Structures
1.
Amino acid sequence: MRAWGSVGHYLQGPGIIDHAARYANLFGTRHLFVVDAFVQHMLGDSLFSEYGDLGGSSYDLVTFEGEISRGSVERVRREAGAGHDVIVAVGGGKVIDVAKMLAADGAALVVCPTIAATDAPTSAMSILYSDEGEMNDIVIHVKNPDLVLVDTRVIANAPVRFLSAGIGDALSTYYEGVSNERTGHANYVWCDTESGVATLAGRAVARACVETLFRDGPAAVRANAARTVTPALENVVEANVLLSGIGFENVGCSLAHGLGNAMTVVSNGERSMHGERVGFSTLSLLIAEDYPSEEIERAAHLCVDCGVPVTFEELRLDPSSDDLEKIARAALEAESWGASPVHLDVREVVDVLLATDALGRRMRGAEGAPTR
Ligand SMILES: [Zn+2]
């Protein structure tokens, strides 16, 4: 069976977040805003300035910070109270995942990401952590968000590191899709008890994603560093948020996510961002799955040019051989690893990690220090 899932509507442009209330009003009249505590401080009451013109519509606000776990979702649910017909998430991946859990009760979901660091905003997936911070639960919801509003002015004003991490995450999408295609592995589109594989539409989205990064990635990073909104930035924000988001769900993850997520089992593993680990691990995928050298180096050049980590040092890791084995074992146990056509043992995975770091150090040596 082929399966396709997608966000309902997607709007992107500078200043659009100012109209979040008006857009939320298209879906219902009792709104709950779940806002990242830092973002709430930054935006102040501007999110709510349109309510005077929205007739009888009303809103409640809860702020969120910290890790998302079943416990913290319940805390937000209690604080927010019942009866909301629209949930509006404003912030990064964790706030968005909390809002998805709340909207699973039947409310409409509007998502306003304030960084382009991951592909969480458009997907139907929530990632929950244990109270100790380990990733331990992936929830696939019946529906994707109804509307995603991406304000590129807000994203241009955020630190470049977030956009770079999003590029790392987005870079994996196409190559992981190819792994899945080779093995016929199931994608992440909700289809009850069945499982499906990628449609032609899903594969086309993944290809558009990688092509956009190669075309516009470095220019977008420069635009972000200068806090400017340019067509290149708009293109890469769309690649990081929309193409990568519906891409990964529709074509599936594999070795890059298996390895990137496994890095959190060693100390310091959490000091890098998800997309940074996945970007590095995409080079590992290309090495492990025996891509031609030119293709591996092309991807590595892109990472260097976009500030995506290519060495252990840039990932803030200084792994001992024990650490490398721990990462390898955790990666081999990951569900996503099973989508890759290569079968490796622990020693071979360690070799792939070391080869990736050596490639990265060589690239950095040739191209100088990272730009961020
Ligand atoms: Zn990811």
Note: The beta strands are 9-12, 30-36, 58-64, 86-91, 108-113, 125-129, 135-140, 147-150.
2.
Amino acid sequence: MSQSEMRTGSRPGRVLVTGATGTVGSHVCAELTAFEELTVRAAVRDPDGYDGPADEIVTFDFTDPTTYRGAFVDVDSLFLVRPPAISRVERDLVPALAAAVGAGVDHVVFLSVIGADRNPVVPHAKIESWLTESGVETTFLRASFFMQNLVTEHLDEVRAGELFVPAGGGETSFVDARDVAAVAAVALMTGRTGAYDLTGPESLDYHEVAAVLSAELDYRVRYVAPSLLRFCWRRARRGGDLRKVLVMAGIYTTVRLGFAGRVSGDVRYLLGRDPRSFSTFVRDYRDVLS
Ligand SMILES: NC(=O)c1ccc[n+]([C@@H]2O[C@H](COP(=O)([O-])OP(=O)(O)OC[C@H]3O[C@@H](n4cnc5c(N)ncnc54)[C@H](OP(=O)(O)O)[C@@H]3O)[C@@H](O)[C@H]2O)c1
């Protein structure tokens, strides 16, 4: 934990949730709508297609400035998700952030990535810097790998009985996206600022991940530890977007090199309970994985 402090002042009246259809944002909306006194505004690109929890639904696209005004008006706090496809922060994200600050948003809870404080190259580091310099109150949630990646990005291969990731023997401190969302909700409701490393309770290598999946599900999952080249080749051959394949290769390289395994106590500190374990995650998502 690099810092922690409480903002003085009242609870927010209205929170804008970006990425409301996404892995963490959807759970943030669900957490926040439990607070009756709060107005939860879901910012989505396709309002007609949105059926998640929210008090208000607004059209919002980071790359479309005509959507900013309607999204940010009367908003006190912002849950900020940088869409994975947006890598040019200055061009595609900063205009929206500037509009949010200009409209009077005074607290931004940003879904960042673990290690962003040590790696200035990642977009999250640039966003953290911009927010810090803007003077707005900030909470940086530097999350480890989401367990939910196994039911999104890797679902088809898990169901086919294999984990095809170039992680070597490296460990990962996987975190459940529901715990990240719970921390975000606490930060938004209490105005807690600071920077936090959000991980699960343990660090697992992919042999252990496969073993837990095999133990909890009705089929066996084995870990294939391909080389980086084999991973990229297979993904590209199957029509994967090259930029995304390279980003994934970069992420798994950090795992291979042993940089992804550190376990933090910040979720416990902020929620007053242990983060969910990987076995709990697999049990809770058994229907999706079966
Ligand atoms: N995956 C991980 O393990 C992990 C770990 C730590 C940090 N992170 C970070 O968490 C963030 C979210 O990643 P994710 O994989 O979980 O994605 P996600 O939130 O599940 O999906 C991206 C979200 O962004 C929305 N979106 C896409 N383009 C948009 C645009 N132009 N304007 C407004 N909204 C847009 C999408 O809405 P639509 O429904 O309209 O497409 C969707 O709700 C990323 O910055 C990632 O680097 C991820």
Note: The CA atoms of residues 39 and 245 lie 38 Å apart.
